[in-house]
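Re: the pair you flagged

First of the two:
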Amino acid sequence: MRHVKWIFVVLLVSSLTSFVSKDKLSGGLNVGDTAPDVFVQSVSDWQQREYTAPRGKYLLLSFWASYDAPSRMLNASLSNALREAAPDNNVEMVSVSFDEYRSVFDETVRMDRIVASACFVETEGADSELYKEFRLHKGFANYLLDDAGVIVAKNISAAELSAYLD
C-alpha cells in the first residue's frame, strides 16, 4: 500500500509540472533574436513599405487582432502612451492587425483611437507571411527593436515602454 502512495505522489507531481508554463518566451521570437524584415502594405495606397528603426531609435511592432481582447487592449494602451509622449521620443510604433476583414479593422482603429498612420492590416490573417515569420501561432506579441533590428524587449506594457521613450 505504501508503494501505491509513492507512485501516486510521483504521478501527481509529474503531471503538475507538465502544466506549468515551460518558458513564456518559447512562442515566437525572443529577446536577442534579430527580427525578420517587416514589410506591410499601406492601408491608404496599398503600396508595400519596409519598416526599420531610425538610427539611434527603437521600432515597436505591435501585433494584434480585434477578436483577441488582450492584444487589442495592449495595442491601444501602447498607442496612447506614445501619443502622450513628447513628439521627439525615441520610439516609432507600427501596429499590425491580423483581422481578415478590413471593415472590422477600420472600426476597431476608430473605436480604440489608435494613430491610423501607424496602423496596418494583414487581411490574410494567420496565413500572412508576417504572421509566419514572427511565429505568432502561439499568440500575438509586441517587439521592441533597436536600429540594428535586434529584439531588445518583448511583450512590454505601456508603463515599461516609458523607460525607452527618453
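Second of the two:
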Amino acid sequence: MASDFMVFLDAGHGGLDPDGQYTTAPSKMFRHRNGTFHDGPLFYEGVWNRTLTNRVANRLQHLQIPYRIVSHEFLDISLNYRVEVANWYYRNHRKGIYISNHANASSTHTARGFEVYTSPGRTQADVLAEMHWNNVRDLLENRIDYRSSLSDGDHDREARFFVLVRTLMPAMLVEHLFFDNAEDARLLMDPEIVERFAEAQVRSIVAWMNT
C-alpha cells in the first residue's frame, strides 16, 4: 500500500534518557501543584510527544502505510537534522507529508486548547491541517477546547516554525492542549484522549492519501 508515499513523524523536543535525565529545555516541562503525571507532579512535554507519535506509528505499521520517525527516541536532535532527513527521502525516495507533534505552554499557565499550525500563505499544508482539525473535532467533540484563526477561511494558525518553512513537503505542527495548564495536563494523561488524538491523526493521513 502507498509504495510511493511516506509519513514523516516528528516528536517534538527531547525525552528521558536511560538515566532518567530530561534531554531538552527546562521550559518543556512543568511542575504541577496537584496530580500525578510523568514523574509525580512533573509533566514532560517531550515524553508525551513521543507517546503519541509512537502510537500513530504503530497504527500506520498495522495499516502498512510507510512512515519514518525523524526524531530520536530521547535525544533532542536539531530541527535542521530532522528536516534534512525528511527532505532527503522526499527528494530521493518517496513523497509524503510531515507531522510534528507537540503540547503547548503559556506564560500565564492558564491557556487551554488544541491548535494546528502551517506555514504562512495558502499551501497544500492548509488542506492537510483542515482535514486534521475536522477529524479531531469529530473524535473529541467538546471534551477539549479549540483555538483557531479563521482569517483565511480555515482553522489553522500560521507561523514560520522551522519544520513548517524548511520542509519540502506539506507540513503541519500540532499543539495538543497546554501541558502547563492543570485541566489540559490531566486530559493529556487520559489514555482515551491520547488514543483519540492518535486515531484522528491516522484518519487525516488516510484522507490525505485518498485525495
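The first strand starts at residue 5 and ends at 11.

-B.
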